[in-house]
Write a structure and sequence with these properties.
Blueprint lengths: L3 H6 L20 H10 L2 H6 L1 H15 L3 E3 L6 H6 L3 E4 L3 E4 L6 H5 L4 H5 L3 H13 L5 E7 L1 H10 L7 H9 L1 H25 L3 E6 L7 H22 L5 E5 L3 H4 L10 E3 L6 H8 L4 E6 L7 H14 L5 E5 L9 H14 L4
Parallel strand pairs: 1-4, 4-5, 5-6, 6-7, 7-8, 8-9
Antiparallel strand pairs: 2-3
Helix pairs in contact: 2-4, 4-8, 8-11, 9-11, 10-11, 11-12, 15-16
The chain binds coproporphyrinogen III (CP3).
């Protein structure tokens, strides 16, 4: 059966513009909190395919999105490379032993060996695919090598990125070695996700904007292009969504090379500008400011305007970054319904 979400990613005509929400499986849903409480630690939830599948499916049933995104986290890759990951309540992710040298990097697992350890992700995908309706898509994902490297080098989230940027300017060779090692794993990781049953893959470059524009291609974009080339050569029918958050300033330069199908537009970039600069090459995804979900009026104004801007363009509705935990579920449902209604063409 054809999936409207996949068709839209590939730029085909669809009866309406499909919608999903970044971080749609998460803490704003009481049903998620119930499973999360049963799992205890967040990583236990990622490691338990039955529970991870359950929370993956919740937003499809509860808020009516057109695609499910597999429940996991981008940081399971460095965890399986041998870096010790934990989620500290109120503080976010932490690695106890961040990479400081080539020796540190050499100690970590790489390639297929690392990707093969992520069996719980592939198992989750298989369970979801059995339970998900045939006309709904399942999105797999990975962190971009750059975004993953920021955590692997800093050991946690950062506002300044000073440790990884110090490496960028004083020891670029080591940074490139880290990025290349992660890139290799990501290729196998996405391939295994596709073999397990995902219909679409998304690459999250959440910290793209931490790199100055003239260095972005060298330290991030070109690695994602390499990943996309690898996947497209084997699976030309699988759409690839690229989400490089906060690159409004770079859009002027035209990030127009690479085998991606969809460009995720963050909420800081006007959709009309993205359409002008990137709409020819890519289907555009996005880009409502997630905090608009606090107000139905603010949501409606934005969805109407996006539907108008993109009425003659190729588009997928989404938020311009992740949904926040205190958004009312009713408003999330309202957003999804409105997107589907206002973009109807049949
Ligand atoms: O519904 C979905 O989108 C699927 C699940 C998903 C999670 N993380 C679950 C999660 C996805 C796609 C991610 C991606 C992710 N993880 C990114 C890229 C997307 C983005 O938001 O920019 C990043 C940077 C991470 C790293 C990460 N994971 C951080 C910084 C945190 C802590 C911050 C926070 O929101 O609490 C996490 C934890 C995390 N990953 C949670 C969820 C639902 C919250 C954990 C909980 O339930 O307590």
């Amino acid at each position: 059966m054809s999936k409207i979400f996949v068709d839209a990613c590939l730029g085909k005509e669809t009866p309406y513009t499909p919608v999903w929400m970044m971080r749609q499986a998460g803490r704003y849903l009481p049903e998620y909190m119930a499973v999360r409480a049963k799992a205890g630690d967040f990583l236990n939830l990622c490691h338990n395919p039955t529970m991870a599948a359950e929370v993956t499916l919740q937003p499809v049933d509860i808020v009516g999105v057109d695609a499910a995104i597999m429940f996991s986290d981008i940081l399971v890759i460095p965890d399986e490379m041998g870096m010790d990951l934990s989620f500290v309540k109120g503080e976010g992710p932490k690695f106890s032993d961040p990479i400081k040298s080539q020796e540190d990097l050499d100690r970590l697992l790489g390639g297929k060996e690392a990707a093969d350890r992520l069996t719980y992700v592939y198992e989750t995908i298989k369970i979801v695919r059995e339970q998900l309706a045939d006309d709904k898509a399942l999105i797999g994902f990975t962190g971009a090598p750059w975004t993953l490297a920021t955590y692997m080098i800093e050991g946690q989230g950062t506002k300044t990125y000073n440790i990884c940027k110090k490496m960028m300017y004083t020891n670029p060779e080591l940074l490139h070695n880290i990025l290349a090692k992660v890139t290799e794993i990501v290729k196998y990781y996405l391939e295994s996700q596709i073999e397990a049953g995902v219909d679409v893959v998304q690459i999250f470059d959440s910290w793209a904007a931490a790199i100055e524009p003239s260095k972005y291609d060298e330290f991030s974009w070109k690695y994602m292009v390499e990943i996309a080339d690898y996947i497209k050569a084997k699976y030309p029918h699988i759409p690839i969504i690229m989400f490089p958050k906060g690159v409004a300033a770079f859009v002027e330069q035209g990030l127009v090379y690479g085998n991606f199908d969809v460009f995720g537009v963050d909420w800081g970039t006007p959709m009309a500008l993205a359409k002008e600069k990137l709409g020819e090459k890519y289907v555009l995804q996005g880009n409502m400011e997630p905090c608009r979900l606090y107000s139905k009026e603010a949501t409606k104004a934005c969805v109407s305007s996006l539907a108008e801007t993109m009425k003659d363009g190729r588009h997928i509705f989404n938020l311009g970054h992740g949904i926040l935990p205190d958004v009312p579920v009713e408003n999330a449902k309202y957003f999804v319904k409105l997107c589907q209604e206002l973009s109807r063409r049949d």
